[in-house]
């Protein structure tokens, strides 16, 4: 999307937006154009906050850059030059001036913040001449030469692409620095002198020459354009692409470039730099939270090279700057009406704001901050609901370490160390020391990624791990930020940890742990333990189950869901096959069961024996005899579920899988079972052979079984209605079964099966003298069923979309075999998303829409629901809302997520709150 080309210079399209305290072009609303960083820098300027002046080159230039073979639109150079002049006037220094040079940072900023994805270059504008000016003006040659070597190092890495030589762990610049320290007999950077830094600048430049074949650029203009090009270029680097894919950020957005006058936090003891949050990003608690380093520059805090100090200590170090920071943080939170993440620098006692944005936070903090902001009357409940990513609720339901087990681990001396509690939750897994290894091992086990510090290259490994442990870095280090956003458990800055990547082991004091050994992290206390500590349910679940009294986590959870229930239109049910699952579903707020798979019941205890007898039976009579044994067992299972669900509806699916799934396939297993059942090996083997199918997914299953063996359907219907009558008699609450016939393709199939069910229902109710409110309906999970939905609806009192099979049969992809190529399709963007995870609206979704419309036309009041995996996916839930379904059904742990997603769907569609019929 290049900006429209204009003819005359005067009215040329604007590409560059300047800002300085008190005035700015554009503001917080212009994130699309200025990127998040640029937009908020402009906004802070408009609020009159102390921001170093600068300008932002818009994202439109990024789009132009990629559309025109990495060239810039006409007129950009002149605009940049003019904007730079404005900055010079404001600061009173000139770019490239040998006496008193203006230095700038060149920063990237996309619409959505992408932490650490694209790199910033600081101290740009230094060369052999200007460094002398900086040395004289600052009165500190040491500072000037240190600034220069930082610049060369950063520029070489980000702009010139000077790569590490021998594997990722060796950085040539760091190597040269270490060598210098060794030669001078010192251990730390601060012990180095101006002469040392000057010598290092020369060494660094040699490294650049060796790697690139060209001398390091001396001309500040050339440096500036090199950096601008690199920022735009970094939009398409591997890290950025990986991050976008993981977070659904379209590549068309592009990044902006902000050029900002430098302020120095490393100018001496009255200077420093820091990062802060207006609330605790881990728990959401309302307290100013952050950390800083005195005498340090920007990246030092985030990179985790030195472990910073807690922000409260700033009050003692620089009381003036601290007071102003307090005032500004409160002002910014009020202004943006959300928790803010701030970057600041203090130059010689004077505070400068360098960035603000809505802070990344854990799921715990997301819910708590949203609820608290409503209570503080900053936002409405509607806004609060829209701000919480439904997936965030997942974290609140995750297990934590059992207190007793934790106490035992402490008493047994399993505790290795305690560091920063950077990402809450409990994680136990085997140790891995690299991101690649994490991805590999995560296929088979839970892994904990242990690194000295993490960098954006580690993102995929962090995603694969359940926990992350680092030796260096603070609460705002890369590891901590990314872990919190991904919902990973994280303990950061464990300084006692000695990590040896080569030997793949870590040492803490006397203890040595190797790759593959178990380790446990408590991301809420920062403790690290050797061995795997067992976990227990989350606070939310413990309170729901009446085992604990409500704490802040539960209270925030309950409040956000109470609001969600007020706004959502969709009902939410759970998929549950057993009594305990049903109880859990009710605790999580399920309004019914949307799918009870009866076959799962058959695998337990004696049930499998009776089932096998039934399968082996010769003729209906023998089969009836075997079924008679199954009847009471199945009746007891249903009774348990009905008891858990009270008067809530329970959708029960008649037998679905092919019968061979109930028999063994290996010779020795067959012979063992034959002996046990007292039948001949040959007979059993012949049965197994006869049930074999080439494509069982498309074979003798679903209603096809019930039609071949109607006595199975009859037995199941009898078990359901007898159980319902028993429970109604015992509890006084009438269960509401909804019997669902699977894999129907034609109205005739359904008619045969509903006739069986209705006959049994009538018989049992008559025998017991009770009426049980019930429905008989079908799954819509074959394209043909959707195509003839009108005729099917004449037989069905409800439809439930079985979107797993519907997706398989619409695409002609078997879910199990699809694993071989669906990921590739997603990677290459042939599929927008995995259709088994996110409903394919254009295909399977279109069939659903058709079925809804024709079904409702044929039968007013036809009940509509969904019971595939998609029922728990927020995007799919939004589509279900659009279709006007009555409910979605998902696994019990996703019920809270679905409740919130349903509310968001209603709010986005502009629906007013209404009381839902249950
Ligand atoms: P990121 O997107 O990774 O946060 P930033 O552009 O914010 O990158 O910059 C990285 C670091 O450099 C931050 O700590 C920031 O505060 C600091 N920084 C950026 N520009 C300046 C500047 N003009 N003066 C001083 N520090 C700066
Ligand atoms: Mg930043
Ligand atoms: Mg199915």
Description:
The protein is built from 37 helices and 34 strands. Helix content is 45%, strand content 17%. Helix 6 (172-184) runs antiparallel to helix 7 (194-212). The two termini are 48 Å apart. Residues 1-11 have low confidence and may be disordered. The chain is elongated and about 105 Å long. The protein is α/β, with parallel strands linked by helices and 918 residues long. The longest helix is centred in the C-terminal third of the chain and has 27 residues, at 619-645. The strands form seven sheets. Strands 15-25-24-17-18-19-20-16 form an eight-stranded mixed sheet. The protein has an eight-stranded parallel β-barrel with strand order 27-28-29-30-31-32-33-34, surrounded by six helices. The structure holds adenosine-5'-diphosphate and magnesium ion (MG) (2 copies). Residues 742, 781, 802, 804-805 line the site of one magnesium ion (MG).
């Amino acid at each position: 999307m290049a900006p429209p080309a204009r003819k005359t210079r005067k009215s040329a399209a604007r590409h560059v937006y300047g800002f300085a305290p008190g005035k700015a072009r554009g503001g917080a609303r212009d994130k699309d154009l200025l990127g998040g960083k640029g937009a908020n820098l402009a906004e802070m300027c408009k609020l009159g906050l102390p921001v170093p002046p600068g300008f932002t080159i818009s994202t439109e230039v990024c789009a132009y850059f990629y559309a025109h073979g990495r060239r810039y639109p006409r007129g950009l150079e002149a605009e940049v030059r003019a904007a730079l002049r404005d900055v010079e006037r404001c600061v009173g220094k000139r770019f490239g001036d040998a006496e008193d040079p203006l230095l700038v940072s060149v920063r990237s900023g996309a619409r959505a913040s992408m932490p650490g994805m694209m790199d910033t270059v600081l101290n740009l504008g230094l060369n052999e001449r200007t460094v002398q000016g900086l040395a004289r003006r600052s009165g500190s040659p040491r500072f000037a030469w240190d600034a220069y070597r930082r610049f060369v190092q950063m520029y070489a890495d980000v702009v010139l692409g000077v790569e590490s030589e021998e594997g990722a762990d060796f950085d040539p610049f760091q190597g040269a620095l270490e060598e210098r320290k060794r030669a001078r007999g010192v251990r730390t950077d601060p012990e180095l002198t101006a002469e040392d830094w000057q010598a290092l600048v020369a060494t660094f430049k040699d490294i650049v020459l060796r790697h690139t074949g060209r001398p390091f650029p001396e001309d500040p203009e050339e440096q500036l354009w090199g950096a601008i090009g690199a920022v735009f270029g970094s939009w398409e680097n591997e890290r950025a692409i990986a991050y976008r894919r993981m977070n659904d950020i379209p590549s068309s957005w592009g990044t902006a470039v902000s050029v900002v006058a430098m302020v120095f936090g490393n100018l001496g003891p009255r200077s420093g730099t820091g990062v802060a949050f207006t609330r605790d990003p881990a728990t959401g608690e309302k307290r100013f939270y952050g950390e800083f380093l005195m005498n340090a520059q920007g990246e030092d805090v985030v990179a985790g090279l030195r472990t910073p100090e807690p922000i409260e200590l700033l009050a003692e170090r620089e009381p003036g700057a601290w007071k102003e920071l307090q005032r500004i943080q409160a002002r910014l939170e009020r202004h943006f009406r959300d928790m803010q993440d701030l970057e600041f620098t203090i130059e010689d006692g004077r505070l400068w704001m360098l960035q603000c944005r809505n802070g990344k936070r854990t799921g715990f903090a997301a819910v708590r901050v949203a609820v608290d902001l409503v209570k503080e009357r900053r936002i409405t409940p509607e806004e609060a609901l829209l701000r919480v990513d439904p997936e965030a609720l997942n974290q609140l339901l995750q297990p934590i370490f059992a207190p007793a087990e934790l106490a035992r681990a402490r008493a047994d001396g399993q505790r290795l160390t305690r560091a920063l509690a950077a990402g809450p939750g409990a994680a136990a897994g085997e140790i891995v020391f690299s991101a690649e290894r994490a991805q590999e091992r995560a296929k088979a086990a839970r892994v904990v990624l242990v690194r000295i510090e993490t960098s954006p290259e580690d993102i995929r490994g962090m995603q694969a791990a359940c926990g992350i442990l680092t030796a260096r870095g603070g609460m705002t280090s890369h590891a901590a930020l990314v872990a919190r956003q991904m919902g990973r458990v994280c303990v950061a800055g464990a300084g006692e940890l000695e990590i040896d990547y080569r030997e793949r082991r870590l040492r803490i004091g006397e203890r040595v742990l190797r790759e593959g050994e178990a380790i446990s992290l408590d991301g809420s206390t920062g403790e690290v333990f050797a061995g795997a500590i067992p976990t227990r349910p989350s606070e939310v679940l413990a309170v729901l189950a009446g085992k604990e009294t409500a704490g802040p986590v539960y209270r925030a959870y309950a409040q956000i869901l109470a609001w969600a229930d007020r706004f959502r239109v969709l009902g939410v049910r759970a998929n549950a096959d057993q009594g305990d699952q049903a109880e859990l579903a009710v605790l999580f707020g399920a309004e019914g069961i949307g799918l009870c798979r009866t076959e799962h019941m058959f695998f337990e205890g004696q049930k499998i024996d009776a089932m096998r007898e039934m399968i082996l039976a010769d003729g209906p009579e023998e089969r009836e005899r075997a079924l008679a044994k199954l009847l009471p067992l199945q009746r007891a299972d249903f009774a348990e579920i009905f008891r858990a669900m009270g008067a809530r509806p329970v959708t029960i699916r008649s037998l679905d899988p092919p019968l061979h799934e109930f028999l063994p396939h290996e010779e020795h297993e067959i012979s063992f079972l034959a002996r046990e059942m007292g039948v001949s090996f040959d007979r059993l083997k012949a049965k197994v052979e006869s049930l074999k199918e080439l494509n069982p997914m498309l074979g003798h299953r679903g209603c096809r079984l019930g039609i071949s063996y109607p006595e199975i359907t009859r037995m199941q219907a009898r078990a359901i209605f007898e159980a319902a009558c028993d429970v109604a008699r015992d509890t006084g609450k009438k269960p509401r079964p909804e019997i669902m016939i699977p894999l129907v393709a034609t109205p005739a199939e359904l008619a045969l099966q509903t006739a069986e069910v209705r006959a049994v229902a009538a018989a049992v109710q008559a025998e017991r003298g009770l009426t049980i409110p019930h429905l008989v309906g079908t799954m819509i999970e074959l394209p043909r069923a959707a195509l003839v939905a009108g005729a099917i609806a004449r037989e069905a009192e409800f439809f439930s979309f079985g979107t797993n099979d519907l997706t398989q049969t619409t695409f002609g992809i078997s879910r199990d075999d699809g694993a071989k190529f669906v990921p590739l399709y997603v990677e290459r963007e042939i599929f927008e998303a995995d259709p088994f995870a996110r409903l394919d609206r254009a295909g399977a979704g279109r069939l659903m829409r058709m079925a809804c419309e024709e079904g409702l036309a044929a039968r007013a009041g036809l009940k509509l629901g969904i019971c595939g995996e998609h029922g728990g996916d927020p995007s799919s839930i939004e589509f279900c809302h659009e279709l006007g379904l009555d409910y979605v059904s998902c696994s019990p742990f996703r019920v809270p997520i679905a409740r919130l997603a349903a509310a968001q769907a209603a709010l986005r569609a502009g629906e007013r709150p209404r009381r839902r019929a249950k």
